[in-house]
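Researcher: Sequence recovery benchmark, item below. Answer with residues only.
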């Protein structure tokens, strides 16, 4: 837990799920800079937080929690299930009622009118583009639009998106390596159509997924092509027993689980990701390729927390090793331990990862075994089996 001090008060904030070993902070200098600006501490008048206040991309709820006592039910829009859960916990810790903020996902319809739009710049330029397109119709000439991010996150291309979709845009001076973006809505501006979602057909060298149509909503990793780790995995994709329950964990666009379903139409496949955009992409990819009567479930959640123990035969996993700008194995560790709990005795976890990440060590500690199925100079594909047949 760490404390964010503002002129409105101090807030004890945590990420979700809470992990005492996780030393990463639940807020950044960019969040603090924006809150100071809103309170009138950066040489300009305080921003009137009246009407509908929308916060986009609030990573762990720091902005929403601080605004909850000063704006009339701020609306948070996030692509992250974990960020949404962190926001709920941080609001409660600050003494706010559950309805002190309205929590929406990037897949929900945004408010019809937005009077103050606050944007925490995401890592994905595509996600920013999509969200600005979706929100632009709700803006009016009097809407206050302020973005925030670390200097390393705000590029010329970032500002060009605000300029093209919203209106005239400028930036602030840097403070503690953070910067603000000010954009003035221009109702006459023609931003063009939203290019998302997109799709493409996988080439013949894509292993078990050759010929499948992949659908990507904005913000999905490698949205215009198959990433090389997944491509390597597909060339060695395991065949589950007939009627097996397969989980595509950290599913992204769902190509692994969809390929498993196409190979065995009797399988039940559960697609899980903490990104709402990813889950929507996985469902669209599955519907575009799988048999009409194929059984699938789509879950935005915290790893395998929502899957009953001992109910899964095969877990396919390409875990992320970044949390925003930080490199961390926290997510991978939760995925591996969750997989062990969810698997039946004799069930298997298949993991693809960069060689240097050392996943085999973690798997051997958890499962007592880890076999190298295939490898190349960059990737290693591992198989761990749950004991107790």
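Model:
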């Amino acid at each position: 837990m760490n404390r964010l001090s503002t002129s409105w008060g101090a807030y004890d904030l945590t990420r979700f799920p809470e992990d005492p070993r996780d030393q990463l902070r639940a807020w950044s200098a960019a969040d603090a800079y924006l809150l100071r600006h809103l309170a009138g501490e950066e040489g300009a008048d305080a921003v009137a937080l009246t009407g509908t206040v929308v916060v986009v991309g609030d990573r762990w709820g720091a902005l929403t929690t601080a605004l909850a006592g000063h704006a009339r039910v701020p609306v948070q829009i996030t692509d992250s299930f974990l960020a949404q859960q962190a926001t709920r916990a941080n609001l409660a810790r600050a003494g706010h009622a559950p309805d002190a903020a309205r929590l929406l996902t990037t897949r929900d319809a945004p408010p019809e009118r937005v009077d103050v739009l606050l944007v925490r710049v995401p890592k994905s330029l595509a996600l920013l583009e999509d969200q600005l397109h979706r929100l632009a119709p709700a803006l009016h000439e009097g809407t206050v639009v302020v973005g925030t991010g670390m200097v390393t996150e705000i590029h010329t291309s970032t500002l060009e998106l605000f300029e093209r979709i919203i209106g005239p845009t400028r930036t602030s001076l840097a403070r503690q390596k953070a910067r603000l973006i000010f954009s003035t809505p221009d109702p006459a501006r023609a931003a063009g159509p939203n290019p998302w979602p997109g799709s493409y057909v996988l080439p013949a060298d894509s292993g078990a997924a050759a010929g499948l149509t992949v659908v990507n909503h904005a913000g999905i990793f490698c949205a215009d092509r198959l990433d090389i780790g997944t491509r390597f995995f597909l060339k060695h994709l395991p065949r589950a027993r007939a009627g097996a329950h397969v989980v595509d964990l950290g599913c992204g666009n769902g190509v692994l689980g969809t390929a498993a379903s196409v190979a065995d139409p009797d399988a039940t496949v559960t697609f899980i990701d903490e990104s709402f955009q990813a889950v929507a992409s996985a469902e669209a990819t599955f519907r575009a390729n799988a048999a009409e009567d194929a059984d699938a479930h789509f879950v935005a959640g915290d790893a395998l927390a929502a899957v009953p123990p001992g109910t899964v035969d095969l877990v396919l996993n390409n875990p992320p090793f970044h949390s925003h700008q930080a490199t961390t194995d926290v997510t991978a560790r939760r995925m591996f331990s969750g997989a062990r709990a969810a698997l039946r005795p004799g069930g298997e976890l298949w993991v693809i990862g960069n060689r240097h990440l050392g996943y085999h060590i973690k798997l051997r500690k958890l499962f007592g075994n880890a076999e190298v199925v295939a490898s190349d100079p960059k990737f290693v594909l591992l198989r761990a089996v749950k004991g107790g047949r």
